[in-house]
Amino acid sequence: MKPTHTSERHPILDVLRGFALSGILLINIVAFNFPGSPPGYLYDGGLKEKLGYGLLICLIESKFFCLFSLLFGMGFYLQLDRSQRREGDFVWLFIRRNVVLMLFGILHILFIWEGDILLIYSIVGFILLKFRKAEGHLLIKWIKALITIPTLIYVLIICSLEIIRYVEPIGFKIAKFEMEFPVFFEEAKLETLQAIQNNSYGSSMSYRINAYLSVIFLLITRIPVVLMMFLMGFYLGQKEILFHLKSNQMFIIQTAQKMVLIGLLLSLGICVIYFEAQPITALLILFLNQSIAGPLLSVGYLMSLSWIYIKYPHWIVFKLWETYGRTALSVYIIQSLVCSILFNHYGFGWVGHLNILACLMLALLINLILMVCSYYWLRKFRFGLLEWIWRMLTYQNIFPLKSSRNH
Length: 407
Known about the structure:
Blueprint: H1 11-33, H2 47-60, H3 64-86, H4 90-111, H5 118-129, H6 136-164, H7 170-198, H8 201-214, H9 216-239, H10 249-276, H11 279-311, H12 316-326, H13 328-343, H14 356-380, H15 385-395
């Protein structure tokens, strides 16, 4: 088998990947600037800043990594379909592809940033491989289970916590701990900030490894939602919803309206509770954002953007997102590299110096520059640089990087 040729690609998928990458940077840049805590956690400042954090939690947090995960599942379907049509050895090809992705994730953590998602994707990718023969009805059952069970568990934990607050003496101990918790939390954040401000590049490597391992439980909680979004993408791929946009326009419109409405209402409710609840409850409510609000609103985003694309396929922003999406792996790593240089001590040392609105504006600027760079790169080259390496290691073959039209 050979890599997907440009003529075999579905532009809407690349547009959606580019859009997802743009949103991922919006949340990641905040993590670089305010390390050691969720966005706006225990924030008690001005109205503008709080509004910025609110928009981040409501519209961005957990939405774009869910969207990117869904597109991974759709890509899995396309690879499987191509392999079956060409009688290729899909299993070993996908295993090699996943192992290379895992290596990229490990290198990303070691040398650039501990906030990597590629390692989780590669791990869940091996689970996804078990579903390659699953049909629609089975996929739907798993999707429902993976969104319902974690959500019910988090709701049960939150409700139980709120009830036992009024049960003595446990309630008194919880209240006492929550009075002390912000102090401990701020001290931990300060230690993280000082480590980033003072570490050399060499010593920051061991810091990144420890930081990644310290949140391993939180990373494990992402596995069900990532698998669920992979399966949802696989299901949508089987139904070919986005491969025949005009014939599926009514379904796309109806789904967009429904998912945006439900997703926004859930996200808004979670956002309000997040800022008003006690510290422990506020942390727990973010798991609901991850398990249900993020997935539903991400589908709303996907369908809404597809709907707009049907009407205005030649918008310049779609052309830029398309090339951005075609270089997705390279761009994801470059985004982290740029932020690492801007915020770490061995670079410009901006960590903790920007407010939330400045972070978001900077992310938009970086996105715009990288989109233009991707556009001009693909006018000369067939793949993004890391995509080229990924393909060669996956297919165990050497492919020309330069586009044939430039020869």
